Amino acid sequence: MKSPFVLDVTSATFGKEVIEASKQLPVVVDFWAPWCGPCRALGPILEKLAGEYAGQFRLAKVNSDENLELAREFNVRSIPDVRAFRDGQQVDQFMGTLPESHVRAFIEGVVPSPAEVERLRAAGSESDLAARVAANPADLEARLALAGALAARRSWREAMDQLLEIVRRDKSWRDGEARRQMLAIFNLAAGEPDLVSEYRRKLGSALN
After folding, report:
1. Could you confirm whether domain 114-207 is CATH 1.10.10?
2. What is the mean pLDDT of residues 97-101?
3. I need a surface site. Which of 6, 149, 198, 202 has the fewest CB within 10 A?
């Protein structure tokens, strides 16, 4: 019996079940086909994790053979092709089969951890944090929390801008916490190599 967190999606239902639904919680889309061996290996891993995370994200399975128009729209060239959507936008992707530990890391990058959610709630809303930073640019605690809020919704550039400002103001603050956070974002944003390269250069300059 299929998990309640897993559903089959077609061209007709993609807008509602993926794009609109991702505005409420992350949606991971698995483009697959019955003849595809790697798809049969990856599918159970994704379904297992959907069950484990129990509603923190939804898994949408798209049979690319039966939904050729949708596969063309998303430029699916080989399967399995896995895309993650948040807030109506694609935010991450991987292709081919991966070990469960790597798939889990991909999901972790899409779904905010309970600790992160609690920390953000305790720190205040993103707008509250932005107001604190605007009122006192030297409030590095507020900047760090704002960077976390931005990273949670995968606004990598904006998050790294806040972390970079912390490094520029105090390289050794919290034993280099801002630098560590930027390095973590470099890994999470690996799908945007130009952005990562740009901020690696900026971080290097700020540390010199």
Report:
1. no
2. 92
3. 198
Name the most confidently modeled range: 78-82, 87-91, 191-195: 78-82
How would you write the chain as a 3-class SS string? CCCCCEEECCCCCHHHHHHHHHHCCCEEEEEECCCCHHHHHHHHHHHHHHHHHCCCCEEEEEECCCCHHHHHHCCCCCCCEEEEEECCEEEEEEECCCCHHHHHHHHHHHCCCHHHHHHHHHHCCHHHHHHHHHHCCCCHHHHHHHHHHHHHCCCHHHHHHHHHHHHHHCCCHHHCHHHHHHHHHHHHCCCCHHHHHHHHHHHHHHHC
Q: Name the residues annotated as catalytic.
A: 36, 39
Residue 32, classified by CB atoms within 10 Å of its CB into exposed (0-12), middle (13-18) or buried (19+), is buried
31-40 mean pLDDT: 96
Q: What is the pLDDT of residue 1?
A: 43
